[in-house]
Amino acid sequence: MWKYFVQATNNMRIRNKLIFSYLFVVMIPVLIVGGIITAYFRQDALDNAIEQTANDVDKIKSQLSTMLSVPISISNKLYLDDNLKDLVNTNYTTILQMVQAYSKYNDFEELPRLYNEISNVRFYHYNRTMINNTQFINVTAKIEGEEWFQTAMNNPRIGWFFMEGSDIGTEKKLSLVRRIKFKDYRTPGVLVITLNQSMLNSILSKEMFNTLIADDSGYIVAAKNPQNVGKTLKQLDLNIDMHQGQEQTISRRVNGVSSNIIVDKLTPQTSLNGLSVVSVFSTQGIVQDAKKVGWIGMALVIGVLILALTLIFVVSKLTTNRLLHLSRQLNKVARGNFDTISFLDGNDEIGQLSRQFNYMVRSINDLLNQVYESNEKNTKLEVAQKEIKLKMMASQINPHFLFNALESIRMKAHLNGEKEIANIVRLLGKLMRKNLEVGSVKKTLKEEMDIVRAYLEIQKFRYEDRLNYELIVEPETERVLLPPLIIQPLVENAIIHGLEGKEVDGMLRVRCSMKEDMLHVEVIDNGAGMSEERRQLVLATLDAEEEEGNRIGLRNIHQRIKLTYGDDFGLHITSIPGQGTKMEFMIPTGGEMHV
């Protein structure tokens, strides 16, 4: 069965494969899943709204707790304030004494300016020698009858009350109420810290749903809609048990609309009572939007599926045509036509295959050309090697005869007491032996400088005091490997073209140093120098094809450096007429040193 299915699939055209795959793998599953998602979308939207509202309530609780911690902290500080204790427990004999005491104590005036969370601080006391002002108020019978005062006097913990006072008019605000018993005094007082109503409302201003904060009596102390502040929950048709201590989610009708209510209680530390955060949102609105989104989503899915089916037809047709074109090009190459070029564009797999096909054809042509050029080069190289060998054989004399003759001359001069001549002959023999031993193997800089030193000693014998030289070789450069006979020709060129015509004080300096991983060689003379025009002419001949002339040595060095180390390297020449010439080059060591 499986074998039959595979065979039938392979026999189908690509377009039909794509269409059937799309129908059974994409369209039908998407329609089924879309139906399931639409069926459950309502509940999911409702659950998300409840979860979001619960998170918002938790955030509000956190912000409210932070705000309430400010008046609590202030009350703790005032509870232990000795200045406040002395102020309200002193018997004042004159009004001037009392006014002076008021003027010295300004904490109640400073605290609202220091903390935005509070708007007013006042203290209720039993000291009849004090006159009432906005901060210090004598307890009257009316005040003693207030619920907040009785609660504070009967309980040491902090109470939160939605209350009014003569200092703030008839408008009620949330206030902290706390009894303060002064040490060493029997008469207590009641501290009242009124919270900033605008800041309370601002906590709720950016909420998505109708959100409010209520006390245990059901009074609304803050709301997203400030007009609701001062009303009760019953007035807003919110019949909620405010004494429930944990978070609760309630489903009921509010003002005739099916709604969900999230309630969470906040009781600050050391507080007798607390506040509740209430958030209300309409269930009908959430579900209606969910249904609408679900139907719109299903319509969009069906439209996209139809559009995709149309695109399948178009794409399959384009793909088939491109594959047939590439197949015809492959057949041409198979018949030996390597000038074939595929003109298929695009960055998909077929376009990449077309570019790889063109690259393959070009690579085959390049390989054929390289083989042809390589054969030509090998032929030319063999011819050149034969010519060089013939020239060397024609110009070469027997080295054993030459060395034996030089040794005989040296011994004769030594026996006759001509030690200087004997030394020069010895150096000449050494120099010629080194030249004859030169091959393609690299030599150390120390060996190269031995040849330079021998050459300079011979030239010193010739020029006497007209020639002076200095060899400056840093120790770390002596083991660097470099092509043989690459410095001595520069020295020879400097003597012949730079110092030949100098009658006195001729100076030649060779300096070898390391610059990072590069060997830097400089050959400097104080000879005749050359003009800028002549220097440019010399530089131009360095890269020219080999020809007869008196700059063959410099060209040889320059081209050997470039062949060995690359086109970025080579010989550099700077010169000032009448002051001298500097020839230099830099080559990378790359860790290539004699061990």
TrEMBL record:
Top EC class of this enzyme: transferase
Keywords: Cell membrane, Kinase, Membrane, Phosphoprotein, Transferase, Transmembrane, Transmembrane helix, Two-component regulatory system
EC number: 2.7.13.3
Transmembrane segments: 20-41, 293-315
Subcellular location: Cell membrane
Protein biosynthesis listed as a keyword: no
UniProt xrefs under InterPro entries: Bact_2-comp_sensor_kinase, HAMP_dom, HATPase_C_sf, HATPase_dom, Sig_transdc_His_kin-like_C, Sig_transdc_His_kin_internal
UniProt key word tRNA processing: no
Catalytic activity: ATP + protein L-histidine = ADP + protein N-phospho-L-histidine
Domain HAMP: 317-369
CDD domains the UniProt entry points to: HAMP (cd06225)
Gene Ontology terms, MF aspect: kinase activity
Entry membrane topology: Multi-pass membrane protein
Primary location: membrane
Entry-linked Pfam families: HAMP, HATPase_c, His_kinase
Superkingdom classification of source: Bacteria
Protein's UniProt name: histidine kinase
